[in-house]
Amino acid sequence: MEHQIQKTLNENPFLPTHSYRYTGWFGSKINIAQILYECMTKEVVKRGDTFVDLGSGDGRQCIRAASVGLYATGFEINADLVNHSRRVISSLVEKSIIPQGSACIREESYFSHDFINCRLEGRSISSSFEKRFTMDYIARNGISVNKSEVLHHIASPTVDLEKYNVFYAYAWPQQTYSIVELFARAARSAALLFLQSAPVYHLDRFTSFLQLKIREDLSIPLIQVFQK
């Protein structure tokens, strides 16, 4: 099974670590638990908040969020990674490392049908920015991309992101705009997005169109924080 999961990691286009080469940035996910704990000391995040990882991979960030007292949900479309995540979570619950019900993984896309229709109908701001963030631009900035792995988004009929107030996403560069716009459209008022992504074209201008606040007081190297 571990071999199969590694094979999946190497092939799955929604997992940026193995899709790109970018010295000094892509490697492993940041430990969100430390970031959330620091936000708790500033009373920006509190125990019992609802956390969501958009593309949860092996589930580690959901587990880390649960370990500091949040209720964590991960959205992941790869069945192998979902099953792996669920086994790890069950093991940690049995060992009383995280509480029962504090972390769960949903095997579905985090993009709603409404959001995908908005993109297809040309009503999406992210679509126009993505056109400018071309493969040539990515290549010039030291990232190599397998072009076959730049896919259309998959939609889910049941996703409801309004219930969460803390978002995390580890985004491959061309996906960054759609994740930020999805957050702006779907999240509740005052929700936070912790975004780990390589630099992209005019992200500050893009977020101003969406009327999102950049929380520079919370941002750290490799992570930008936005608030609705």
Keywords:
globular; seven-stranded mixed β-sheet; alpha/beta; Rossmann fold; 228 residues
Distance between the termini: 40 Å
Shape: globular
H and E string: HHEHEHEEHHHEEHEHEE
Q: Gyration radius, to the nearest Å?
A: 17 Å
Strand content: 15-25%
**Mean pLDDT over the residues:** 80
Q: What's the CATH architecture?
A: 3-Layer(aba) Sandwich
Counted by DSSP, the helix tally is 9
CATH topology: Rossmann fold
Quick one: how many beta strands? 9
Query: CATH homologous superfamily - what is it?
Result: Vaccinia Virus protein VP39
The percent of residues in helical segments reads: 25-40%
- Number of domains as seen in the coordinates: 1
- Which CATH class applies here? Alpha Beta
Q: Segments where pLDDT lies below 50 for 5+ residues?
A: 1-27, 145-151
Structural notes for this entry:
This protein has 228 residues and is an alpha/beta fold. The chain is built from nine helices and nine strands. The strands form two sheets. The chain has a seven-stranded mixed sheet, with helices on both faces. Strands 4-5 form a two-stranded parallel sheet. Helix 6 runs antiparallel to helix 8. Strand 8 and strand 9 form a beta hairpin. The chain has a single domain, classed as Rossmann fold (3-Layer(aba) Sandwich), CATH 3.40.50.150.
